[in-house]
Every structure is written in C-alpha cells, then in structure tokens.
Amino acid sequence: MVGGGPAGSAAALTLARAGRSVLLADAGTGPPKIGESLPSAARVLLRDLGAGDRPVSDGHLPCYANLSSWGSPALDRLDFIRDPNGPGWHLDRRRFDRVLREEARAAGAEMAERTSVRRVARRPEGGWTVTLRGAPSVRGRVAGPAAERVVRCAWLVDASGRGRAIAAPRRAGHRRTDRLVASCLELAPATGRPGEQSSLVEATEDGWWYTTLLPEGRRLVAYFTDADLAPPAPRDAADFTRLLARTSHIAPRAEAHPLPAQARTRRAPAHSAHLDSPVGEGWIAVGDAATAFDPISSQGILTALYTGMAGARALNRHLAGDDGALSSYRTDVAALLAAYRRNHLAVYALEQRWYDHPFWQRRHPTLTATE
Fold first, then answer.
1. Run means of pLDDT, 10 residues per run, the chain, 371 residues
2. In this predicted structure, what is the pLDDT of residue 263?
3. What does the alpha-carbon distance between residue 89 and residue 267 come to, in Å, rounded to a whole number?
C-alpha cells in the first residue's frame, strides 16, 4: 500500500479486516491538503469501514452550512439542519489522517510511516519486490543514514495521490482535463469573533475562492485558477492579499484573522484527472491516483474513502478467486467519473457573469483533455 491518506488507510483497513497481510508505506510528504471540510455523508462511509465516528470525534469543528456566491453576487446558504447525517466537519487533516491510519493498524495492517518507495520490480513468477527507505535517523544534530528494507508482495495498491507513484512508472494511460491550481494561505486565529462555522465559495472573473475555519481558530483561504492564465496564481503573501482584497465575501471574513509573521502561500495541484483503467498487472489504484476531482465538488475525501474501500474489497475478492471482481471495480470507478463530469459541468454552467473570460470559457460547455 503506497500512501497513507484516506484512500490508502481505507484500503489497508478493509484488507486487514478481511485477513490479508498488509503493509502501508507513507512518506508523509506531498503537496498541502486543500479541502479541509468534510461532508456529513462521510459518516456512512466511515461506519461501513468499521471506523465508526472515531476519525471525526475529536479535534474537529462542526460545519453547519455551505455558503456560496456563484452565478450571482448574492450569498446563498445551504444549511445542514435537515441532513439526516447531521453537520459536516472543518477538519484537522493531520489528525483525521492519523486516526484512520491508527484504525488500519488496529485491524492488523503494518504501518511504515515516514517511509518512501524507492524501487519496485516485477518478479518473473508474479508479485513484486519493493525497496522501502525510511527517514534518516537523527541523534542530536547529526543525521544518520536512511534505513532500507526490501519486501515482497503479491499486489500493490497505489494510494499516492495525483503523483501516481505506482501507476505512472508502469506507463498507465492517464488523462488530465484542466490546469487548475490552488494557492493557499493560513491565517492566525481571529482577534475578535471568528465568524460562522461555515465554508464559503466565491466565484471571481479568473477563478474562485474558498475559505473555512480550521480547528484552533485558524482560517484557511484558497484561490483556484488555471496555472497558465494571466495574471498568474499568486505566489507570495503580498500578491495573495492584494487579490483577496478584491473579493466581496471572502475578504470581510479574513479581516478578523491576522496575517502571521513570515506568512507564505502554499501551492498545490487541483486539476481533474483519471487513469484509463484503475487496475493494471499486479496493481490497483485508489483515491486521487485513480481519479482526482476539482475541489469545487467537495468530493475528494469521500471519493478517497469510497474507492479505497471498494478497490480493497475487489482485490480481496480477486485473491479469493472471483475473476470478475477487478472488472466490477473498473466499472464502479467509470460510473463515479461519469457522475462527476455531469455534476462538474452543471456547477460551472451556473456561473455566467464572466462567460467571455478564459477560465470560464474552458468550463463551458465541455471538459477538454489536455494530456
């Protein structure tokens, strides 16, 4: 299992509960997490996994509504008061991911944290030889050599995100449908009242903004645009705050939160992408490695949990002799992708104020493959 995010942990937990021998290697590196809000529908998936409410029980804030200025300068509100699953959550992502890994460990999966996959080789008789490298040991201020370990396994699960650490070197067919990137800035706790515990999306002429409260009172602000557009996505805090000041709804909520000393913007890919097939010879992809969604969908973590569980169940059935299990998983992921595309087009079609600007032109009316 390569990758210790929600998809990798869900797959490891599912396979370990099925009695399979599982090792999860998590390097603990990669781009920053963008979507910090989790819809309440995740409660059903977490219970299906057998994790219950433990991953969301402590250290997170409830999210009572989604606010949006999209297709209109007015602010719309979608309350969760009537949602049978209750409110969503403003996540502490590190805590959420850690608890999921702990659930997988408790089910019997071996965890190799701060460990990267260095080499992967297919064995002639089938299966894989994998070389792992742990983080260098540190004593005082002297770094010792990184420890290497060689393991053998029958199957690999690629849960490494958009980087596709297993699928990409295998030359698996991959399609990216846009150039969306995110620039993020984390603000300090508010000096006064922090505002409502709701997420907020605001469309602008060259992209869209997102903000949410984080645990401990901090506020995440993110700007999404295409990497090749002019003006480019902001690369430092000064550029970011200048753009932020032009928003109608995000800026007033950010004003109560001081800009931390040495504040730096973080940049991360946010494009839509998918593999032609999430299953290859001896490997299976889950989460963003299989299909990555635009964060406007609010489906990233849900999809990671679902595909991690579904992919692991399919692999377990395949190992038990079910010849159609992996084909069924391919079909499930294809259906998920088709539904996402329909919803993605419908959401962007709602915003017509800047129909002649490149960012919005590219999203009306179809997605076009760029690679």
1. 97 98 90 74 95 92 93 93 86 92 97 94 95 70 68 98 95 96 93 81 97 90 92 81 95 93 90 98 98 95 98 99 98 98 96 95 68 45
2. 87
3. 23
What CATH number is associated with residue 206?
3.30.9.100
Judgement on whether residues 166 and 27 belong to the same structural domain of the protein:
yes
Q: In which element (H, E) is residue 273 found? A: strand 273-275
Domain that holds residue 172: 6-64+90-177+271-343
Q: What is the CA radius of gyration of the chain?
A: 21
Residue at 250 is within a domain: yes
**Domain tally, the chain:** 2
| Alpha-carbon torsion (200, 206, 207, 212), positive or negative | negative
Check whether the bond before 258 is cis (ω within 30° of 0): no
Q: What pLDDT, on a 0 to 100 scale, did the predictor assign at position 145?
A: 58
Is residue 216 located within the same domain as residue 298?
A: no
Structure-block tokens of residue 104 = 């997988």
pTM: 0.92
C-alpha–C-alpha distance, residues 293 and 25, integer Å: 24
Q: Where are the alpha helices (DSSP H) in 3-79?
A: 6-17, 42-49, 54-57
218 and 284 in a single domain? The answer is: no
